[in-house]
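My hope is that you will study the protein record below before we discuss the fold together.
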Amino acid sequence: MMISGNSGARGPGRRGGPAETAAGLRETCPVCSPSPQSGPVSLPELWMGRKRMEEQWWKGELAADIHQTLRMKELKLPMYKAHSPQIGMRRYFIDLLTVLSNRFNLCPTARHLAIYLLDLFMDRYDITVKQLHIISFACLLLASKFEEKEDKVPKLEHLNNLAYMCNVNVLLNKKDLLRMEMLLLENFSWNLCLPTPAHYIDYYLYVSIGENDLHNGWPITSLTKIKAFMEKYAYYFLDFSVQDHTFLRFRPSLIAAACVCASRICMQISPAWTTQLELLTCYSWEHLAQCIEMMLVYYENDIKEASNVKKQVTIQHQEQEAVGNLSHQATTQVLFQQPRYHPLAQHSATLSQVQSPVQDLCSAYRDSLQAHRPSGLLVGSADSSLHSYAALQASLRPSAQTLPIQTPVAVQVALGTEPRHCISMAYGSSYFSGHHSYAAGCFDG
């Protein structure tokens, strides 16, 4: 951000570096305005001067002077009275400016300056809703021209595209925007050097964590990680401060200091407010207490709201899982329900079809063997199927020792139960003599 000693001479399209914030620095800087005695400035010196102006001002040598100039400027800020008839729509336009600034990657100082310009202008005039949209875009353009580089200033075409995406029924043109910019500049007496909390926050964050600070009662092991979390918390509270117009009754520097202190409290860093921060900001704990209390109340409400939303999402997720499980169970029951027919009926029919060729083969083989038996053996076999090996040897003739064949009923029962195993038992090698041989492939299933 640039602050000039003669801020009233600033136009809508000019900007400068942070080194111009202290009064009279431009006249004393040999790089910005070389004196006749010093001679021409070399290119390396000019490059180093530009680099020094573009770096983060709160880390430079002029940080204390710039901070002091900002504190002097905020004493002359106009008073906000909250008398706007459209104050109920303030939150909507703040959200709109936030979306637009995030889309164009504008710095926080540009966003906060645009919101502050809009607040002051709304507080002074009664404006229609359609005109408020145009004024909001004009405030964003002026703030970006004052705080950002030229290549980051939003273009008119991009603004119209984003306005259409945000359901803003306003078509901007160059003439209306220029006229509105001139109206704003005349209203603020061509002075856009209006400090906001975003202008102080980085300067205070730079010394927000000390080596002697404690985290949860223990020494801090990593200052880099703690500072990173501290920065997130501080900008979180900084965004809270613009959502409620009641924070405008505090000075911008006090709001920035309260953001740092509230962040230390939430991160459980002790002490909550150090002597170094008090000397840097010129604010004691008593000065910050009221603003910090308001921020912590907003923080607790935000935590509760986020917890309620999380619970609702969890309940909805559980309900969806329950419905999915019920549908899965119903599908499983349909696919894997018990059949209405007996499962062994078809299997028995299939076995009978497979067994019929084997039974025919066994019958043919049995008939060929019975042709060499005496009639007495056949009669005895019909009476009983249980004969010992000795009885069979006595009833057979010495020249022909053959296998005793059982009745067809017994063979059919054995084959119907388990074909391959029962055939091997009935016609096993222990019942065969050396005079009868068979091909083993005939009994393979």
User: Anything to note?
Assistant: The two ends are 95 Å apart (CA to CA). Residues 285-335 form the longest helix (51 residues). The CA atoms of residues 13 and 145 lie 6 Å apart. The mean pLDDT is 73.
